[in-house]
Amino acid sequence: MMQSFIVEHYLESAVDVYCGGPDIFRGVIKACADNVLTLENEGKLTHIAIDKIIALWAQ
User: Fold this and answer.
1) How far apart are CA 12 and CA 10, in angstroms?
2) HEC profile for the chain?
3) Whole-angstrom distance, CA of residue 24 vs CA of residue 28
4) What is the pTM of this model?
5) What is the pLDDT of residue 9?
6) What is the residue-averaged pLDDT of the chain?
7) CA nearest to 20, candidates 52, 59, 57
């Protein structure tokens, strides 16, 4: 459910992703498949398990 929402509304958008604790992941959503969100930031990829996401918002 969350995966299809991200693909429909945020694919190729710059976002911040909060998974708890002090860290916020920032980048452009490049892919969202197999329950993994892929962000690109300064040429580096970050992969986040979708079930760990608490909040996501546009930059």
Assistant:
1) 6
2) CHHHHHHHHHCCCEEEEECCCCCEEEEEEEEEECCEEEEEECCEEEEEEHHHCCEEEEC
3) 13
4) 0.92
5) 96
6) 96
7) 52
pLDDT reported for residue 1:
83
Of 58, 2, 52, which is closest to residue 23 (Cα–Cα)? 52
- Closest to 38 (Cα-Cα) out of 9, 59, 17: 17
pLDDT tens, position by position, 6-34:
999 999 999 999 999 999 999 999 999 99
Show the tokens assigned to 39: 């962000």
What is the average per-residue pLDDT within 27-50? 97
Amino acid letter, 45? L
Q: State the pairing for strand pair 36-41/14-18.
A: unpaired
Residue 10 CA, distance from chain mean position? 9
